[in-house]
Amino acid sequence: MSGTGGASGRPPLLGVVYCPISVELPSLVRATRRSWRLAWLVDRGRLDEPGQLDQLSRFGRVIDVTGLAPQDIPGVLPEPLDGLLASNDVDLEFAADLAGELGLPTLDVATVERLVDKATQREALRAAGLPMPRIVTVRSDADAAAVASATRALSFPAVLKPARGSASRASSYVDSAAAVARLLAGRRRLPVEEFVVEERIPDGWCPADSPWADYVSVESFVHSGRVEHFGITGRGPLAEGLRETASILPADVPSALGAELLDLAEEAITALGVRFGAMHTELKLSPQGPRVIEVNGRLGGGSIRWLAERVTGVPLLAAAARVNLGLPPGVAGARFEGVGFAYYVQPPLTASGVHSIGGTAEAYAVPGVEDVITLRPAGSRIDPAEEGSMAAVLLVRGWRRTHEEVAGVIRRLQDGLRVSYV
């Protein structure tokens, strides 16, 4: 069934695999505008608060899928779905299985595997002729001898990260096989999982030489195999542990380089066989030219959706819904007004908790600041090494006319926000 119309001429019904951390309810509901109806597929074990079910039911039909396998869900649907939206990495495989059962236009199981498994993805990109760093897989319970054997053909420095994961969880730069073994040994108390060790793409510049990191992301949508780009998002320099400190939209890149980045993102998306969905492609600006870091089969995090609406008025979550209803995304040619920013205060890797927070009231006096959001209040326990970018304590968002002005705002925030840690 396509997304051109629902049963009995009613607006199409979009099924949403509900995840509290990735589905922004107000944005999705606002974007609906009577274009489609919403059906929330909810696993009660993932809800943060008891009242969330009542809130969801105000804006659509709630379908309880707790404990159900994808093949069981068609039997509990009150009417056929016209599309299915999953906006979190961990939900993509579930959504692909369910879409296959329902015959809906979305990512298929084989494509999802290429998107969520880093080693599989690198093999597919390399097979398509894209220059990719060498990569090997190691189990987290591997001893020093096994790590040394697995990484013998690699050149260091390299990057260690989970084979399946996001937000820089448990990720680190490593300079030797011994460093890999040492970091893995520190995870013995955690469930065993696969990690990848990937040769590090050379840096484009030193962090001291630019207010921006040497990597960007391209936000794209794919409809019936056709790639439509929305824009390019820049970043602030990474904190230790490859954690993000800022997102900037649009990125501060020359137009010629921007065109090259869009072409490379499309080449990577096509190489992975993507036919439908929202894509978030991370690219490194290496001395040898742009290189693919990874392709994600979802919208980007790091406040990118907020930035998109603030700078262009385009709701990316609605565009993702459209392509998964079999409709064109309608994001090409979006008009960018000024520069949006989202700045994160990341704790040191050694922190285990937040002791105190200061300077938030004063941050509102900085020109361009619109939101100051406390993500981890004083007294919170944190595990930055394991949580990655999700361990951020504060988020500050806003808008300025130019990239230079945004860089100045971030410098003032770095000086003025005060967080102490346990």
Name a few traits of the molecule.
single chain, 422 residues, alpha+beta, Rossmann fold, Dna Ligase, domain 1, Aldehyde Oxidoreductase, domain 3, 8-stranded antiparallel β-sheet, 4-stranded parallel β-sheet, 13 helices
Describe this structure in words.
Helix 3 packs antiparallel against helix 4 and helix 4 (109-116) crosses helix 5. Among the domains are: 11-114, Rossmann fold; 134-199, Dna Ligase, domain 1 (2-Layer Sandwich); 338-422, Aldehyde Oxidoreductase, domain 3 (Alpha-Beta Complex). It is globular and about 60 Å long. The chain has helices at 25-32, 52-57, 89-102, 109-116, 118-127, 144-150, 177-185, 255-271, 304-312, 316-324, 360-363, 384-387, 403-416, and strands at residues 13-17, 37-42, 61-64, 83-85, 135-139, 158-162, 172-174, 194-199, 215-223, 226-235, 246-249, 277-286, 289-296, 339-345, 354-358, 369-374, 394-400, 418-421. It has 13 helices and 18 strands. The strands form four sheets. Strands 13-12-9-10-11-14-17-16 form an eight-stranded antiparallel sheet, sandwiched between helices. It has a four-stranded parallel sheet with strand order 3-2-1-4, sandwiched between helices. Strand 1, helix 1 and strand 2 form a beta-alpha-beta unit. The chain is an alpha+beta fold and 422 residues long.
